[in-house]
Amino acid sequence: MKRLLMTAVCLLVGFGAMAQNQVNGRIEDAETGEVLIGANVILEGTGRGSTADVEGNFSIKNVPNGTFTLKVSFVGYETFNREIQVPVGQLDISLERNSLLTEEFIVSATRASETTPTTFQTITKEELAKNNLGQDIPLLLNYTPSVVTHSDAGAGIGYTGLRIRGSDQTRINVTVNGIPMNDAESHGVFWVNMPDFASSVDNIQIQRGVGTSTNGAATFGASMNIQTDTKKEESYAEIANSYGSFNSWKHTVKAGTGLLNNRWAVDARLSQISSDGYVDRAFSDLKSYFVSGGYYGDDHVFKVNVFSGKEQTYQSWYGLPESKLEDDRTFNYYTYDNETDNYQQDHYQFIYTGKLGQNWKANAALHYTYGRGYYEQYRADDDFASYGLEPVVIGDETIESTDIIRRRWLDNDFFGGVFSLNYVSDDGRWDAILGGGANRYDGDHFGEIIWARVAGDTEIRDRYYNNNAVKDDRNIYAKATYEVAERLYLFGDLQFRQIDYQFQGVNDDQRVVDGQQHYDFFNPKVGISYESGNGKTWYASYAVANREPVRSDFTDNPITEIPRPERLNNVEAGVRVKQGNFSYNANFYYMGYHDQLILTGQINDVGAYIRENVENSYRAGIELDGAVRLSPMWTLGGNIAFSKNKIDEFTEYVDDYAAEEFQQESFSYTDTDIAFSPNIVGSAMIDFRPIKNMEISWMTKYVDDQYLDNTQNEGRKLDAYITNDVRFVYTLRPRFVKALEFNVKVNNIFNEMYEPNGYTFSYFIPGGNGRELVTENYYYPMAGTNFMAGVNIKF
């Protein structure tokens, strides 16, 4: 009997093993036949699933015999359900586009399409996720064309920024769901106030050059159009945790209901990021949340987004003196224990998009942002006069300076609305958009003395300066694409932008800054594109952008001598190609500036450095990027940009402390390189997939020499550098969760010592020949070899 039982068990085990099957298939768009990479596949009742690979193929292993329901889902498509009998042959699955109105229209008015004659690239959620281990969005975009990134703390967490084609963050327009994000006064975007925002982003489109009309600050080098997460049909939850060098941590929790009653959905995220920083004491403590709720009808979508970021960072703004560059790269000038920046921004967006009949779609959004915060500073031996205070007399002693701790505050409100109305003709030849927006910024700037070694006649929280600024920004644009012949498209885009800016009160240098300015800007754009077949699109365009000065140009200059607004004339021409496993883009650009504002060393009446207009300057270049999939295991990609960035003529002013009375000496320059504008920027990527669900990537970045100012002086330069990063991504699909993702990224694997950002100033002092020129360079060094490792659990 025992032998019989053992034989029966062995036979059952053998039959069971033989009954384990594999379910294979391929997923594509039912209309276009395009493979749907990343489509989610679940075999209900088995706890097993898969995702479509780069060829649209999926495979589910170890499936027993039986009848099961196969469910396939992908964003923007109807969920596919089919009962299958296992074993089963190869499954070819075509997904139909979702009949519900998609959220893509929310951002379409300010975006470029495949027929738009401008230079652009779209970065998907999947591409962002591979690098999203805690660093800010600029670092996640490091390998996109013509991009140079930098970080004050050296590790990519805290204050970070990027330049595109040499244009800094103040010249790059950023919108989220079509809503402006640039600060109305400085024109900057402070990513530190949006920690882990990438975890709530569906995709980012970067348009280089002027691009198409958008809302908010003028596009003067590039624009970044961000779309937040779109609806997910299935409920989900995610827990993501990362740890890395410099005691860097990232904790993220996400959850969503999926579609409830086929109409409602709620999504939420909570994040915390912390790091000690590469630079000494340059810590970051960042918190954020994102909540989105929406109603999704057949013809109408209503959506509410609420998100917030709160940051505390220890200041590393001062930079690293050149004398410390070789032996003390982590040096931090600041030593006061609370030399910190503290700020919080709360964002509220109410968005509507809908179909208005067969040919019309509409989008409208109301928004409100509340920002408030301060940075705290210890100031040794500061003059009382700098704070509008009288000297302190104690007995026979008159004290004119003392140690002070101060806080400089911002408290601002930004609100308004944007809209777009889209018309597509019955034959599809006309695609026209009327759009625009109106926004108001109301900001208070004030400073407080919270401690003084010798206080005198002062009270804590006394404001030593206080001023207010109100800025109204209105724009309206009309853009249209017309198919004049088969696959030949004409494009036109006309924008009128109007700005009213008024400011009053006392500035931080104790000057009264009362004034107001009005600007009317007309920004036309025209272009042509041609789809020649075989996946090729040729394009050419001409665009104009006008830009008002920033806050400091008003407050630091005498009100009667405010700089002129800047003007940019932009030509773009190129080709986009996508053919099977091979794709590439090649383009030429010319960006001619009139009255570009630059630092020249000129000072105002209280010694603050101001920007001045230079009559003519330009950027011209060629950009190439592409990728080829050599096999299911190997993919090669890369980009390179060659450019020339010149100022025709300008005058530099140098402080002269060797003279009997302080003065400035002037020097004239012609045909010099624009500061922070490398002539070559390139990246290369190799992706290797040795086994299913594993990807190993090698990424190389090259940035050519950059000058710290506009004199093209070899003694004021950032050296060229090459960095190499390695990334490992591996996904498991155990039965108890949807996915278990492991991600390790080793940055700067060869320990390159490099600095992508800095500043410089020069002055004369008494010397052997009467005077001596001294140049002081300061740098923001990046970390050597460092890593981040993360685990993401999806339910």
From TrEMBL:
It is a multi-pass membrane protein. It is found in: Cell outer membrane. InterPro entries: Beta-barrel_TonB, Beta-barrel_TonB_sf, CarboxyPept-like_regulatory, Plug_dom, Plug_dom_sf, TonB-dep_rcpt-like. Residues 114-221 form the TonB-dependent receptor plug domain. PROSITE patterns: TONB_DEPENDENT_REC_3 (PS52016). Keywords: Cell outer membrane, Ion transport, Iron, Iron transport, Membrane, Receptor, Signal, TonB box, Transmembrane, Transmembrane beta strand, Transport. Residues 315-749 form the TonB-dependent receptor-like beta-barrel domain. Residues 1-19 form the signal peptide. Belongs to the TonB-dependent receptor family. This is TonB-dependent receptor.
